[in-house]
Amino acid sequence: MSTSEEGWMSLYEENAIEQNLVEEYKEAFNYFDELPSMGQVSQADRDYFIETDVEEGGNRERLAREYLDSKNDDRQFEDFDDSEIRDVDSKELVGYVQNLEKGRMLPGLFSFRSSSDLLEQIAEIYEDAVDEEAEGYSKIMQNIADISDFDREIASEYESSEGSNTEMDLMKVQRDIAEGGRVWASAVRDTTDTFDHYIKEDLFGSMIGQIAEHDEDGSYGEEIINNLEQYIDNHIEYDIEQYLINNVDGRITDIEQAVKTQNEDIDTVIGRVGMLEGQITALDDLTEEVENIYGILGNHNEQLDNVTDRLGDLEDRMEDYDDQLDKFEVELYDHIDEEINKLEEDIGLNKSEIEKLEGRVSDNATKIASNRIDLTATMSDIEDLQSTVSALSGLEDRFDSLEGRIDSAEGQISNTGERLENYQNRLEWAEASVIDIYDTLETHEDRFNHLKEDRNRRREKETKLAETDREATKEYRDQTQKLEEEMNKGIKEIISDIF
User: pTM above 0.70?
Assistant: First the structure.
């Protein structure tokens, strides 16, 4: 191989995506050794190859697509249907191929064995063009990698929800990257596909023969070089970076703004989450306070148990008091009955004495009536009368004393009743306090149950939100992976079309 051929091979060995591409180009260079030498292919043979290829349909479809592609800026090589391919006139295709010989076919001349200055200059120009193409290819691959990294960065920092504009923008960016690859592929197809075609058709030998035949003063070779340089300027040097700036960077800026807006929304949500965490903390404090209240209620319950025990003891003591009061009342009434009976007996004795006295008074009255004139009375009768009066007075005092004792007993009974009523009131107050405590316990229990229900609902909602986030994240990652796979597949197809 020549120096240029080695450069070509080295270039593609460094940049080939798959090893079989390198093998294909090695086979192509080996095929060059078998091509005719200068002047061995006549002009008639050259025209025959072209016309036969067009008329008999060898590569007619590809040439027709290429011809239509050159005439339509808004459509790609593969966009034309079969009916449009069939409608292309064969003469137009022959003229198209002949025009290609004057311009874009000439870069392939470097691969033929020759020591002439003309071929060396053409080889150097073409090699420079290939280097620029390789640099452009490297740039677009790096841009694709950068965009993929940006895509993954966005995916990791912002998990978009269903219908998100950010997700749609990412898809548009990926589509623009693929479109940029297709445009770049179309720019280099003029040299690669057509070059391979004419290698297979053995037509370069006739061109070399023409150059050797007409290039006595070097003007024809100079014209070829000028045409080649113009072709490279017009067709080879495709500024993919500028395309990305025009069609992708703006989208990326929009995405960055959308992400910034989403981040601001996320910051707002984080603030609201902080407030919610504060509320949750307050709720936890309230729960702790409720637990403290339950501790206090537990102490109250212990005190209530103690009060209940004391009330039980008090009831036992009250029963003892009732028994003692019953016993005292029986004893009191027995004593009263005894005193009354004794008093009645004394009264009965007094009555008999009074009756005797009345009889004596009656007798004395009779005597007084009979002896009304005699106003004096014997001292014995007066003394007897005074004794009787004294006895009556003593009996009256005893009766008064007995009434006092009865009144005292009634007062004790009344005091005992008041004490019993006081005990009853205290018992009723204690029962009311116990009822209030139970009502308070039920109220706190209801509040605690309500707090537990709120906490359970919050946890269920958090669980559902977490599940929804996981599902959305998984769906987004699946879609992103699918888009990356499609993009990689499209890139491989583009590379396959290029090489």
Answer: no
